[in-house]
Design goal:
The chain is α/β, with parallel strands linked by helices. The protein has a domain at 3-175: Acetylglutamate kinase-like (Carbamate kinase). It contains 13 helices and 20 strands. It has helices at residues 16-31, 46-57, 63-70, 72-87, 119-126, 154-164, 198-206, 214-223, 276-286, 315-324, 326-329, 356-366, 390-400, and strands spanning 3-8, 35-40, 92-95, 102-104, 113-116, 130-134, 137-140, 145-148, 169-174, 195-197, 227-231, 239-242, 255-259, 262-271, 291-296, 303-311, 333-337, 340-346, 373-377, 380-386. The structure holds aspartic acid and magnesium ion (MG). Residues 9-10, 41-42, 47, 73, 135-136, 151-155 line the site of aspartic acid. Residues 265-348 form the ACT domain. Its EC number is 2.7.2.4. Pfam families: AA_kinase (PF00696), ACT (PF01842), ACT_9 (PF22468).
């Protein structure tokens, strides 16, 4: 007997037939003698609609009321899923975030989970009941108001719940059947990974592989929750996200991700003296503008060029902040380009193998792709290239690292 958290995303509960399918899957696990807690998202498209209504009424709407509105999507699906389960003879009960309770901080719209009291849910599971918990929702104890965890937050709900309930596994059912070496829409010969380490999944999730929400992977790694990503439409084993000790053969490169969500900013002829970088990046961080890749040239004539990337959506704000500080920082010109893509190769084997970056550069050179910015971490090499070359670059790298099926 195992204790399992089963999480179903928006496409898996998009209509009543799909909710019946969810109930059938849950029933199978229950019939096999497992204790099961279910987490569901809102029906596909619902949250987008709710967000849009708030925005249409007032672009600067109150975040507490936004949460009141967007949390409703999951209230519908927990009730419907509980009804569907009861209809096939499985004892089930719905739970909103506040009822569990899932306590968060007060950052409405993107709250962090602080504590989940799993006592009552565990008691129910031990009596054979299936709790159906709303993803995405929490409660902020200070003012006793409903919070939400940020878009895609029900993955985080599921992992946090699995940790609180000391579950043996957290199964994330979605519309893809696992984690692939890269996006199969770009590389049809991409392979499904049987296992991938938390560290790799985290790098892949944060550089644009959209299977799991980044924060959920962070938490899974911290709380050592075994996560399985699998399809709710097909009966196939999925991909396991686990500790790297559980992975026998450590590939040098496990996956390739790309992101078109970044923009490149170059400050020309920045004075080359102490304190300048702090003056450039301080105000950006105060305004919550995330900066990712950063390169600075060697100064020749007392000035240097500084290039970095920010999220595309943050570009107007970053530009505004930088232009306002132009006199103080003393740069000559600001150039921005949002027609770029970041391509990253990720693998824990890089820790012990040299030459990953050079084979990346070689493969891109052979295709005539110009590299604009490079950054590396212990298990990742990323390059910024012109957006038009995204597919070509991903395909070339997939082949070079021997990932093609
Ligand atoms: N329904 C929420 C969203 O669409 C949470 C989730 O599905 O993960 O962002
Ligand atoms: Mg989701």
């Amino acid at each position: 007997m195992s204790r399992i958290v089963m999480k179903f995303g928006g496409t898996s509960v998009a209509d009543l037939d799909r909710i019946r399918n969810v109930a059938a899957r849950v029933k199978r696990e229950v019939d096999a003698g497992n204790q099961v807690a279910v987490v569901v998202s809102a029906m596909a498209g619902t949250t987008n609609q709710l967000v849009k209504w708030c925005q249409d009424l007032s672009p600067l709407h109150d975040a507490r009321e936004y949460d009141t509105v967007v949390a409703t999507g999951e209230q519908v699906t927990i009730g419907l899923t509980a009804i569907a389960l009861q209809a096939v003879g499985v004892e089930a009960r719905s739970w909103q975030g506040w009822q569990v309770p899932i306590r968060t901080d007060n950052a409405h719209g993107k709250a962090r989970v602080e504590e989940i009291d799993g006592t009552e849910l565990i008691a129910r599971m031990e009596q054979g009941q299936v709790p159906v918990v709303a993803g995405f929702q929490g409660i902020e104890p200070g003012r006793n108001r409903v919070t939400t965890l940020g878009r895609g937050g029900s993955d985080l709900s599921a992992v946090a719940l699995a940790a609180a309930l000391k579950a043996d596994r957290c199964d994330i059912y979605t519309d893809v059947d696992g984690v692939y070496t890269t996006d199969p829409r770009i590389v049809p010969r991409a392979r499904k990974l049987e296992r991938i380490s938390y560290e790799e999944m985290l790098e892949l999730a944060s550089v644009g592989a959209k299977v799991l929400q980044t924060r959920s992977v962070e938490l899974a790694m911290k709380a050592r929750v075994r996560v399985q990503v699998l399809s709710s439409f097909e009966d196939k084993p999925g991909s396991l996200v686990v500790d790297e000790d559980e992975i026998m053969e450590k590939p040098i490169v496990s996956g390739i991700a790309y992101s078109r969500d970044e923009a490149k900013v170059t400050l020309r002829r920045v004075p080359d003296r102490p304190g300048v970088a702090a003056r450039v990046f301080g105000p950006l961080s105060e305004a919550n503008v995330n900066v990712d890749m950063i390169v600075q040239n060697v100064g020749a004539d007392g000035t240097t060029d500084m290039t970095f990337t920010v999220g595309k959506a943050d570009l107007p704000r970053a530009r505004d902040i930088l232009e306002r500080g132009k006199a103080e920082v003393g740069f000559e010109a600001l150039l921005a380009d949002d027609n770029v893509a970041k391509i990253s190769v990720v693998g824990i084997g890089m820790r012990t193998h040299a030459g990953v970056a050079s084979s990346m550069f070689g493969a891109l050179a052979e295709k005539g792709i110009n590299i604009q910015v490079i950054s590396t971490s212990e298990i990742k090499v990323s390059v910024l290239v012109p957006a038009d070359y995204t597919e070509l670059a991903v395909r070339a790298l997939h082949t070079v690292y021997g990932l093609d099926a």
